[in-house]
User: Fold this.
Amino acid sequence: MVKQRGLGYAAALAGGVVLAGPYVQQPWLMALVIILFSLILWRFFGTKYLAYVFCILSALYAVNLLPFVVLATTLAMIALGELVFQSGADDLNTYFYYVISTAWAGVLVMVYLHEQVILMVIFGIIAAVLLKVILLKYEDSLVLEGIGIAMTMYLIKELNYTADIEIVIVAVIIAFVFGYFAYRFRTADLSGLFSIALVGVILLVFADATWLLIMLTFFILGSACTRYKFEYKKRIGVEQGKSGARGYRNVFANGIVACAAAVLYGVFVQPIFIVMYVGCVATAAADTMASEIGVTGGIPYMITTLRKVPIGTNGGISLKGELVCLIGSFAVSLVALGLHVITPWMLVICTIAGFVGTNLDSLVGALLENKGYLGNAGTNFLATLGGGVFAVALYWAFMVHGVVL
Assistant:
């Protein structure tokens, strides 16, 4: 992490932008002032990457590609958050203070500008801390953080989705508490903590608590299976990295398509997105269980040739793995049925989709991952996408033939 001098002046500049914003009607003039002062800070205080952020976002504002509330909130979050973060160490407490500082910045800007954009601010805060922990080791991380925060808030604002403030607050608390315990129990690292929190907020805001419980079923099953015969898996070299703790790549690879389904459901309220969501989560759970338990089931067979391959080979399948895969898919679907999210026919669809998605994971692993075209995260993403799409296709097939779902 590169220490930035002049952070106090950068925070003052961000504050000045917020205060003057309502009185400066020409975006190009405001952008010109921000760019001028940013270059001065760069020249005399070495705030190179902060200057990049301020200049890029100001230019987007000048040509009306970024609303002022997004510009002001991003600048305030970046400046104040960085000021607080660089005064501490790279630990959980510092990230907690970083969250508090960015939250204060976002809320103060929102109140001063009389903008009711609490959802935008919350997603901006989560994006800020997640990008911070992921990109910390990179010298130019501030540039990517600033652009990422701004684009996240812009997308949320343009989505124009409304939610009760009480639901949003409860969602944030529940999501972060769950992420914290996942971190404390070493089933997730710091990036996994904030990734899980983001997934939780999305599900609670755009759907409801039952959807989070379905995802929670996957996390619990996945964590339990990761610990299953862990010492044996470690001895043969096929254990989950970081002593079983999962990071942001694993969380997003398994959850990003499901989150998209939740957002689509929140906006359009169509049952097809319910099937897509449960199909994705069933695939993620089935694949994780098959991978973690299947490797203890003896010599696997390559899915494309049915020839024996070493344990842990991408694309290797076993009878034990296939059975566990089906059990995992059914377990998630059964929980969804028990929570009255899906119907019995949908349970059948989602169970099959999870099984198909898991074997698609093996197929992609054999054809693409083994040849270096994809990493494990990419394979998992395609598997969950395939499971969700297959669930949607099967749902439509039932509908076309007049089956009441």
